Amino acid sequence: MRVVGENVEPDIHPIRDAIKIADDMGLDLVEIAPTANPPVCKIMDYKKFLYEQKKKQKEIKANAAKVVVKEIRLGPNTDDHDFNFKLNHAIKFLKEGAKLKVYVFFKGRSIIYKEKGELILLRFAQEIEEHGKVEQMPKMEGKRMIMLVAPKKTPGKKS
């Protein structure tokens, strides 16, 4: 098998010799290319290798963008003042970079006012247009009519 690694000159050795070389250096013999002809093994500190891989994975995970989804609940008969109050909260959430899940919840027999619920959501989408874009138009899911809104990317700002 071909043996490679730091402080080792790449050469072909029998398995026993390769293991002995690794033991003499106080390191591990790790097979890195089993399908190659001959198979390739690397002499390294395997625990250190695993530790560094884990550290890299943590770093990648930490740098990944975390998407926050805020919910705003409306009713089919939401009044103007309440509507504007929730609209202002929605704008604040979008400016912070959160996604919005705006929904109209139908209690009991209010489900017969589906059109009212859809009109409220469409009005909401229209009012919020300059701060966010609608990802999913209103659709019914059980007793809720749901609409998803994502924040608009502002030019020059990284996100």
Description:
The structure is a single chain. With about 160 residues, the chain is an alpha/beta fold. It folds into 2 domains: about 60 residues, Translation initiation factor 3 (IF-3), N-terminal domain (Ubiquitin-like (UB roll)); about 80 residues, Translation Initiation Factor IF3 (2-Layer Sandwich). The protein is about 35% helix and about 30% strand. The protein is built from 4 helices and 8 strands; from the N terminus they run E-E-H-E-E-H-E-H-E-H-E-E. The strands form 2 sheets. Strands 2-1-4-3 form a 4-stranded mixed β-sheet. A 4-stranded mixed β-sheet has the order 5-6-8-7, with helices on one face. The longest helix is centred in the middle third of the chain and has 18 residues. The protein is rod-shaped. The two termini are about 50 Å apart.
Key phrases:
159 residues; alpha/beta; 4 helices; 37% helix; 2 domains; Ubiquitin-like (UB roll)
Indicate the CATH topology of the largest domain: Translation Initiation Factor IF3
CATH class of the largest domain: Alpha Beta
What's the story with the biggest beta sheet?
4 strands, mixed
Tell me which CATH architecture of the largest domain applies here: 2-Layer Sandwich
Strand order of the largest sheet: 2-1-4-3
Instruction: State mean pLDDT (0 to 100 scale).
Output: 86
Structural class: alpha/beta
First-last Cα distance: 48 Å
Number of domains: 2
User: Secondary-structure element order, as H and E?
Assistant: EEHEEHEHEHEE
Gyration radius over CA: 30 Å
Tell me the CATH superfamily of the largest domain: Translation initiation factor 3 (IF-3), C-terminal domain
Give the number of helices: 4
Q: Could you say which overall geometry the principal axes of the C-alpha atoms support?
A: rod-shaped
Give the strand content. 25-35%
